[in-house]
Structures are given as structure tokens and as C-alpha cells.
Amino acid sequence: MKSLILAAAFAGIALSASAQMATNTPAPGDLSTATGTGYGLLGADYAGAEFGYIHHIDGPPRVMHRYGFVANRPVTPLSSSVNVDAMFKYNYTTGSDSGIHAWQHDAMIGSTAYLNLARIKPFVEGNVGWAWTAGNVASKNDSFAYLVGGGAEVQVAERFVITPYANFREATHFHSHGWTYGTKAAYRLTRQWSGLVGGELDENHNVEWRVGMNRHF
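The structure corresponding to this sequence follows.
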């Protein structure tokens, strides 16, 4: 699984190399975004919902489900080539197995800085927030959490982008930390809507598959 994700990441970067001389501004038409930065999620003003199916090696529970919300908004660029987005993320993750019930809430705010190059946007991301967890075999607990990561959003077709990434996340009070590697793909269905699919693998070999929809403003 990890090899497939890394292969997808390298394939996306390789595809972008042949397009470095092309403009990243979408062609005129009904699907052109208000900001003119492309059809991807970086630089876009949107809110979205996600559903994730997690094969939880660390379980039980062996299967968990994640329900997420994300909001993204571009802010004042740092320079002519460096842009910044602000974001909010919320996730509710739950699972049950063999009489064990577990759930976790986490909420984070953060920002993403990226280079607006031709058909490729390398980025770095930072989030801070809080997580709450509980279950029928553990007392309720909470922790400060943070995430740092990076990747590149690659426009492989007019309406289609793929984004390989790597993140390091830690919840300090839970003594939980580690790297996650993933790839997500977004397709602009209309000017106002885009769909998303993706997959990621963490250091403990937990695997998540996700789907989502985003409303663009």
C-alpha cells in the first residue's frame, strides 16, 4: 500500500514536469474559478464534507469511520509567487468491535503556504488544535494536537488534480505521534462543486480510504 501511494506521488510530479512552461490559469469558460488560480483546492474558497473508512490495525475496533468537515479560504499572498490559505478542520471518528466502542473528536485551525507554479503547487501546511477521545473501556481524555506536512498539488487535466503529501501529527497527552503518507484526487464537476477521493497509510499500517464533496464560493 505504501509503495502504491509513493508511486502515485512520483507519477504526479513526473507528469507535471512536462507542463512547467504552461500557464496554470484555467481556460475561459463556465468552470473558471473566481480567483483564476486553477481547478484544484489550493487557493480556492470552499467548504466540504468527507467520509473515511479506516482499516485499523491498532484495533480493536478493527474498522472505524471518520466524518469530517473542512473549510478553506485564501488570504493575502506573502509575495507574487507565494500564496497562503487559512483553514478549519473538524473530524468525528468512531468504531465498535467485540463490545468495544470508541470515539474521538478533533478540531484544528491552520494555514497552507504554496508556490503558484505552472500546473504544480508545492506546499507546506501547519495545523494546531485539540482532540477529545473516550470509549466504554477508557475514561474520557483530551489533548493538544498539531500537524505539519507538505506535498504538491498537480494539475494533470483541466478539471483534475492529484495531491501526494506526507504529514507528521502528534497528540501530546495521548502519546500518539507518527507520519502519514497519502494521495488525494479532486475533480471539478461544476463551478460550484468538486468531488474528492483519496487514500493514506500511517506508520502503524492503518489504512484510510476517503470520499468527499466540496462547495466552492
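Residues 2-216 form a domain with the Lipocalin fold (CATH 2.40.128).
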